[in-house]
TrEMBL record:
GO annotation (BP), single: peptidoglycan turnover
Pathway(s) where this gene product acts: Amino-sugar metabolism; 1,6-anhydro-N-acetylmuramate degradation; Cell wall biogenesis; peptidoglycan recycling
Binding site for ATP: G12, T13, S14, M15, D16, G17, I18, D19
InterPro entries: Anhydro_N_Ac-Mur_kinase, ATPase_NBD
Function: Catalyzes the specific phosphorylation of 1,6-anhydro-N-acetylmuramic acid (anhMurNAc) with the simultaneous cleavage of the 1,6-anhydro ring, generating MurNAc-6-P. Is required for the utilization of anhMurNAc either imported from the medium or derived from its own cell wall murein, and thus plays a role in cell wall recycling.
Family annotation (Pfam families): AnmK
The protein's name in its UniProt record: Anhydro-N-acetylmuramic acid kinase
Length: 410
C-alpha cells in the first residue's frame, strides 16, 4: 500500500492562531483508510495580525486594500506554520498540504449559503514549503447548493459511522457543530450555534480584556441569569431545520451587547459567563437529543473549559460524553486532521463533502490545487472512495509511548 504524508492547516473562528496537524494515510485493500497521527502544534498569530483580523469582522467594514493585506499576511503566516510542521512533525518530508484557511465571512441569507470566504493565499504556503497545496475547500460545496460547512461530516461518517451507537461528533470551536452518524441511520451535520464565540466576547468585557475564561474558572463561580438566558435561547436560529450553518458574523460581540442592553439589571461577568456556558450546553444538548445521539465525542478548544464540559455532561445525560482522544485523535488536533484528509481526497480524485451534512446536491471534489516547486503530478484517482477510517496509534513515535500524538506550543 502506498502511504501519503499530509499536513493539515486551519485557523478557527476564535482566530487565535494556526493549527497544524501531520498524518500518514494508507488506503487498505479492504477500503479502510488508516490515519496515523504524527503530531500537531499551535502557531499563534502575531498579535498585530490577530487584532487586524478581529477588527475586520462584521459589522465592521473591510476595504479591498485591507482584504488584500489580510489574505497575504494570513497566507505568509500559514506558510511559516506549515514549514514548522514539515520540519518538526514530518522530518522534512511530506507529499502535500490541505489548508482550510481562515474564515473571514460566511454569507447566509434566508437559510441558504450564498458564499464563503477563507483567507490565507495558498501560494505563500507552496512557496514556503515547496509542496502542492489544496485550499479553498468550502466554495465548491457552496456552488453545489451546500453550506460549505460543516465539512467534518464526511470525516466523522468514515471515522465513527460504522458503529451501532448513534454518535454525535461535537466540535467546540468559536461555533459549535455536530455530525451525527452511525446507528444504521443516515448521517447529518450542522452548526448548533455559538461554542466559544460569545464566551470569548464576554471575557473581553473584563477590565484586563482577557481573550478567554481559562478553564471556565470565572463561569464556575457565577450563576446563569434567567432573563438573559431566555432571551438568548429565543433566537430563531435554533429552530431552523438542518442543514444549516452560521458564524461569528452572526454571533458577534455586538449581538451580546444588544442582548445585555435589553436587561433592566446587567449580570456580573461571572454570571454572564455562566449564562453563556449554559446557552452553549443547552443548544448543543438539544440537538444531540433531537438526533437521538447516545454518545457524544467532543473536540476543539472548548473541551478545555471544564465548566462547559460539566454543563454539557449534565444536559446530555444519559448520553455519554467523551473527548476525541478516546477514539484515537487529540481533541485539539481533529480539525487539522480533517484539513489533511480533505486535501488528500481531492488530490486522489475523491469527493470531500457529505451532501446529507452540507445540503449540496451531490458529492464533489473540493478546493483548488496550487503546485509546489516542481511540476504537478497527480496520482491515478483511487478506484473508489474509502469505506471507513481507522486511527492507528503512533506507539513510541517521537519519544511517546502512550500512543497520544505529540503536541507542542507555538
Amino acid at each position: 500500500m502506498k502511504s501519503w504524508r499530509v499536513l493539515g492547516l486551519l485557523s478557527g473562528t476564535s482566530m487565535d492562531g494556526i493549527d497544524v496537524a501531520a498524518a500518514e494515510f494508507r488506503l487498505a485493500a479492504d477500503g479502510w483508510l488508516e490515519l496515523r497521527p504524527l503530531g500537531c502544534l499551535d502557531v499563534p498569530y502575531p498579535a498585530e495580525l490577530r487584532a487586524e483580523l478581529l477588527a475586520a469582522l462584521p459589522p465592521a467594514d473591510c476595504s479591498a486594500r485591507q482584504l488584500c493585506r489580510l489574505d497575504t499576511l494570513v497566507g505568509r503566516a500559514f506558510g511559516v506554520a506549515a514549514l514548522r510542521g514539515l520540519t518538526e512533525l514530518c522530518d522534512g518530508q511530506a507529499d502535500l498540504i490541505g489548508s482550510l484557511g481562515q474564515t473571514i465571512y460566511h454569507w447566509v441569507e434566508d437559510g441558504r449559503c450564498e458564499g464563503t470566504l477563507q483567507l490565507g493565499q495558498p501560494a505563500w504556503i507552496a512557496e514556503a514549503t515547496g509542496l502542492p497545496v489544496v485550499a479553498d475547500l468550502r466554495t465548491r460545496d457552496v456552488a453545489a447548493g451546500g453550506h460549505g460547512a460543516p465539512l467534518a461530516g464526511l470525516f466523522d461518517q468514515l471515522w465513527l459511522g460504522h458503529g451501532r451507537a448513534r454518535t454525535a461528533a461535537l466540535n467546540l470551536g468559536g461555533i459549535a457543530n455536530i455530525s451525527v452518524v452511525g446507528g444504521g441511520l443516515p448521517p447529518l451535520a450542522y452548526d448548533t450555534g455559538p461554542g466559544n464565540a460569545l464566551l470569548d466576547s464576554a471575557a473581553r468585557l473584563l477590565p484586563e480584556r482577557r481573550e478567554r475564561d481559562e478553564g471556565g474558572r470565572l463561569a464556575a463561580i457565577g450563576s446563569p441569569h434567567p432573563d438573559l438566558l431566555s432571551a438568548l435561547l429565543a433566537d430563531p436560529y435554533y429552530e431552523l431545520p438542518p442543514p444549516k450553518s452560521t458564524g461569528k458574523e452572526y454571533f458577534t460581540a455586538e449581538y451580546l451587547h444588544a442582548a445585555l442592553a435589553r436587561l433592566a439589571t446587567p449580570p456580573s461577568i461571572p454570571d454572564l459567563l455562566a449564562t453563556l456556558v449554559e446557552l452553549t450546553a443547552r443548544t448543543v444538548a438539544q440537538e444531540c437529543d433531537r438526533q437521538e445521539a447516545t454518545r457524544v465525542v467532543a473536540s476543539g478548544g472548548g473541551v478545555h473549559n471544564a465548566t462547559l464540559m460539566a454543563a454539557l455532561s449534565r444536559h446530555l445525560a444519559p448520553a455519554e460524553l467523551v473527548t476525541s482522544a478516546a477514539e484515537g485523535l487529540p481533541a485539539d488536533g481533529k480539525e487539522g486532521y480533517l484539513a489533511a484528509l480533505l486535501g488528500l481526497l481531492t488530490f486522489c480524485g475523491q469527493p470531500g463533502n457529505l451532501p446529507a451534512a452540507t445540503g449540496a446536491v451531490g458529492p464533489r471534489p473540493l478546493g483548488s490545487i496550487t503546485p509546489g516547486r516542481t511540476a504537478l503530478l497527480l496520482p491515478a484517482p483511487w478506484p473508489r472512495p474509502p469505506v471507513a477510517l481507522r486511527c492507528v496509534a503512533t506507539g513510541a513515535d517521537r519519544g511517546h509511548t502512550t500512543g497520544e500524538p505529540v503536541r507542542t506550543g507555538g
